[in-house]
Structure formats: structure tokens, C-alpha cells
Design goal:
The protein has 326 residues and is of the alpha/beta class. The protein has two domains: 264 residues, TIM Barrel; 38 residues, no CATH class. It is 43% helix and 14% strand. Helix 6 packs parallel to helix 7, helix 7 packs across helix 8 and helix 11 runs parallel beside helix 13. It is globular. The two termini are 32 Å apart. The model has no long low-confidence stretch (mean pLDDT 96).
Length: 326
Amino acid sequence: MAPQKGTLLSYRPDIQVLDATLRDGGLVNSFYFTDEFVKKLYKANVDAGVDYMEFGYKASKELFDVNKFGKWKFCDEESIRGIVGDNDTDMKISVMADVGRTDLEHDILDRKDSVIDLVRVATYINTIPAAIDMAEYCKRKGYETSINIMAVSTSNDKDVQQALELIGQSSVDMIYIVDSYGSMYPEQIRSLAEMHTEVGQKYNKKIGVHAHNNQQMAFANTIEATAMGVSMLDATMSGMGRGAGNCAMEALMGFLKNPKYKITPVLRFVQEEMLKLKAEGLVWGYDIPYLLTGILNVHPRSAIDCVKQGNTDYVEFYKELWDKEC
């Protein structure tokens, strides 16, 4: 077992934080955030010392109806610039591009013409070659790139190792561990992080983690990955994200000891903006249906439906899940 990196009293200057509130949180409200909300989030992240802010997806307008989603599903250049101008700050701008759902030639400008710094390519294990092609394309355009391997909990170690080797040999800057189903425990994250960081050291790649909170493990898994040397950490304000949500930014800011990170701007944003979203009826965060899909290591879509319907027959839901998935 690899030694732990750092202690609870020290900090590693290689650690960077990415705020994914607009992107993962956008899955809660179909990306309909007001410009006022986004501008305040941008300022809060800058003030808190956050390193990257992800604005949403670069989704193809041929595949997705622009009338059914807010603008952060598409992240047009003018939309982002309307918030950040030329982004004269130390914080970088990120977007996500799903394999098969992004019109690269139309939607990815040359870096010199864009305020975006990082393009994160989201992929499942069986589309790794396509993901590498997308990332290489964005790299040639001048961007930082990452490949985020989703639902890694459903893949065996041999397949993950092969995928990591392929990505390692590419020009990609970062590789992300993504616990899409919120099914993993710290011990599993420790093993995966060790596997990823070995490849990261071999090929000079940063390793990141994006955790979901189905079993209330998102924060624990994030700091466990950090202990193993993972350096790119995703979080969202109040944990806002699809279904059970993500690692809460306020928890992460309270944990990190680097004085560049400040919790007060995060707390202020949560009390002034996130509480308002919940009061308006938006729902995310831990609930028993998400726990059950996490335990069974399956996609949370059925749990999302269960929560929306207000179904509290957890025993019957569990039996149905078990019959269907197991």
C-alpha cells in the first residue's frame, strides 16, 4: 500500500479545487440558473480561492433542444463572457463535453478565441478511444484537457488499468476517478486512487476525483483520495448535483489547510443563494432511494423518479431494484 500523502495539519500545494455547481447542479434544474446567481457564484469561487469553475456542458444543439434547457447546457462563448468578461482572475474556466454528445468542430473554438481553459471529456470505460480522440482534438485547439471515467464502480480492475494506460499515452493533462453511482467506500477509493496515481506519476498526469453522495460518502471519499495523492478535487455548493449530489464545497473548504482557500465566501453564498434554491422547491441531496441504488451499484435514475413521486415505500422500492438489477 502506498504511503499517505500529507497529514491533517499540513497542506499540499499541488491540490486544486474545481467547483461543479453549475454543471452537476444543472442536472437538478435543467441548467436554468439566473445570470445573477451565476455571477455571484463566480465571485464566491474567486474569493474562496477555487482554482477552476465549471460552467456546464458543451452539448450539441443538434441533439438537445435549446428550448428545454438553460444556456449552461451549451456554454456558448458569449454566455460565459457575459458572466466573466475576459476572466481577469486567477481562477480558470472549465466545461464538460460528453462523448457522442458534443459537436467539437462547431462548438470548440480555438483557445485563443475563448475564455475557457479546461475541457473535461466524460466517458464510460467502453468509449475510451473516442474520449481520447476528443481530448486530443481539444488539446490541439490549445486547451487543458481531462478524461473523466464515469461509473468506474461498474468496471473491473483489468479494464480500468487498460484504460489508464491508453489515456496515459495520450496528451491528456488530467484523469478523473468518478463514482457516478455513489456506491464506493473509502477503502475502494483508496485502491482506485493508488492505481490512478501510479499511472499519473508514470505519464505525468494529474489525477482528480468526482464523488457522489448516495451513501453519504462523497466528502469522505474525496479526502480519502486526497490522502492517496489525488490532487484535483471536485465539489459543489451545498453538494448540489444530480440525485444525491456531490461533495459539499463548504465541507471541503473546511478540511483543506492551504491558506489560499477560504470558507467564508462559500458560507455566504450558501446562506444567500443555495437556501433560496431549496426554498423555491429544488430538491437534491441524500435520501433513502439514493442510498439503495448506491448499495446496489446501479444508476440513480429510478431513485430520482422515486423521490420526485414522493414515494416513501422504501422496502418495496428496494425489492423492485433488487429484482430488476440483481
